[in-house]
Amino acid sequence: MTQQTPSATPIPIPNGNRQKDVGRAGPLAWAGLALLSLPTVMLGLDLTLLHLTLPALAADLQPTSSQALWIMDAYGFLIAGFLITMGTLGDRIGRRKLLLIGAVAFAAASVLAAFSTSANMLIAARAALGVAGATLMPSTLALISNLFPSPRQRALGIGIWATMWGIGYALGPVVGGLLLEWFWWGAAFLIAVPVVILLLLLAPLLLPEYRAPEAGRLDLPSVLLSLPVMLPFVYGIKQIAKSGITLDAIAAILVGVLFAWIFIKRQRRLADPLLDLSLFSNRAFSVALIVLLFGLVAVGGTMLLVAQYLQLVAGHSPATAGLWMGLAALAMIIGGTGAPLVARVIRPGFVVAGSLALSVVGYLMLTQMTPDTGGVTLAVAALALAYLGNGTIAALGTDLVVGSAPAEKAGSASAMTEMVQDLGISLGVALLGSIASAVYHRAMLNHLPGDLEASMREAVVDSLWAASSLASELPDGLMAQAQVAFMAGLHGAAMFSAASVAVLTVLSAVALRHVGVVTQREGA
Fold first, then answer.
1. pLDDT at 450 over 70
2. Which of 249, 273, 297 represents a domain boundary (last residue)?
């Protein structure tokens, strides 16, 4: 097959058979991959950009603890809620076209977020960023499958893509912390603007357009059903973690389950479903999605808690804390770029299982930290092990998902990959953040002096960063107790992560053991 020109519409590979080597991509494709890496890094950044800027943001906008969590995770939830819709839409109207439309919307929402004057305004802007981001993410990954028809090159390209996304969300705290040293918190959002300008200028030159040859109509009821599947369920989880099992939490979860049942039932009846359930008949596809989802739940919440530890317990500035987290992120680069190469000689399931086992060790290391012992070195080493496993599953898991789908369904498969990745990060922030908050609340309620003012009492019980803002006014020893309570919450979240990733380790080794190395899948 000859190299496609950027303006051509790529011909789908017949019968979805992408297991044979159908030709190697040339320099133009690699230049296109480099361009696609820019919005990929940007989208990853926005998932974690506020981890170290939250204290400064909180001092300015005065959000409640609930509003602070929504500021953090509204972006990821809305991305996950619209990804399947946008991935399917890209197959219909053109993946490059959707990428450019979404880029403009993302830049506009970024400016709105940067100049927000209230917590609710910022939540709305973050939600708009999520909807815009949902147009970008499946487009970038699906276009990679068009740029690289060779399975080996595609695996490497996806590995690079996954690494860039991982670098983005790993370096979000670094970038946010450094910007906070010289600018106000809103400047963190404006870095998207030059990236979008560059993408608009170069995409028509370097990226091919692709439309599914026989795409059906977009089912509007399915689109409307996709979002209420997720948000009630997430709300219920957060309420249970914060307040225990309550009637409204159970009701919210049941509402989410009901919408999920209606959504799935409708997809099975449609000739052109929004979510192609037939893809789940492939075991590698299904297991890879599960590993991606819950692996990112573990690392997503852990990142936020470690970022807060470095600032609020270890006492580092946002910039210094960000640099420490950036050092740990080097492990993700190693995992993301090295895993596809190792998978050429060792079965991917065993590579994934081995890296996840190291992540379990990292999460267990976090449980040994205290405000007085352990310190930054242990935190960074533990986070590096977690990142190593995450980089591996992001690269190999994504390739297993996209590589197992026919070319005409690459957009839908890519959207599902992106959905579980962003949903995993956002669920991690919500679930592990709620677990840590619940432990913190209960610990602090047992150690508050009876004569503490009501306003101070509310702030101290709410969160450690709220207590830190009143540190000079608190009674002796109460701030130290708040740090102990925070560490107890971190330990609880880390134990949850260790247990869940241990299960994923076994699942990967068993369920993916039959998946061959890349050269075998190519027929080499």
1. no
2. 273
